[in-house]
Design goal:
By secondary structure, the chain is mostly helical. It is built from nine helices and no strands. The longest helix is centred in the N-terminal third of the chain and has 35 residues.
Length: about 210
């Protein structure tokens, strides 16, 4: 009986410690996701990215902190006057580290493509021929890894539209993918609650693409 009680106590304490640790992780991630919405400068973006990296150091088995740190880098490069190539490269490095934690992850594969698409946007004339196929391959892989991932689809739609405009082609394919992404975002929104930590961004991009298709 004493042995049973000792085992029970050990299991209970271990579970309690895990629950507290998991709760602290969720709280920290939620706080920084909210902070992402308040970014108004490269400096505030750096603070948020650094906070995600500190969470990652504390929770080395989690991929989400690295994901959000990379996403913050990418969005900063697109929004502000910074060394865009450096930011996109840093994002790719973070994504690669996250892939070591969570291989074959559609969200990470799509984010890798997003960062590489950013590098194309810096100099499309000289980089497009070499990097665009790599971007499309990453998006295609992300879709195959999870066909319910709307970010993989909307990012591919965005890339398709950019290439169509660059080569003077019609937007039909891109528009079709944007509508597909919009439907996937609608389905995703039905399962999101206040405790949802996974990525949900991109719905506004899908709607903007669809508006351009009218």
């Amino acid at each position: 009986m004493k042995i049973f009680n000792l085992i029970f106590a050990f299991v209970f304490i271990s579970f309690s410690a895990f629950s507290q640790s998991n709760g602290a992780f969720e709280t920290a991630i939620k706080s920084q996701i909210q902070a992402m919405q308040q970014i108004d400068s490269p400096e505030s973006a750096q603070e948020v990215s650094n906070s995600f990296l500190r969470i990652s150091e504390a929770e080395s088995g989690e991929w989400l902190p690295l994901y959000y740190a990379a996403l913050t880098k990418i969005e900063t490069a697109f929004r502000f006057d910074v060394d865009k190539d450096a930011y996109f490269d840093e994002a790719i490095d973070l994504v690669q580290k996250a892939k070591e934690v969570s291989p074959n992850n559609s969200e990470l594969t799509a984010l890798h493509g997003y960062a590489l698409m950013g590098k194309v946007s810096v100099d499309p004339v000289s980089r497009g021929q070499n990097l665009s196929p790599q971007v499309m391959q990453l998006y295609g892989t992300a879709i195959n890894q999870d066909r319910a991932n709307p970010r993989a689809v909307v990012l591919m739609a965005q890339m398709e539209l950019g290439m169509a405009e660059f080569f003077g082609q019609g937007p039909e394919k891109a528009c079709g993918m944007a509508r597909m992404a919009d439907e996937l975002f609608r389905k995703e929104s039905q399962k999101v609650d206040e405790n949802y930590l996974l990525p949900t961004w991109g719905a506004n991009t899908a709607k903007a693409l669809i508006e351009n298709c009218q």
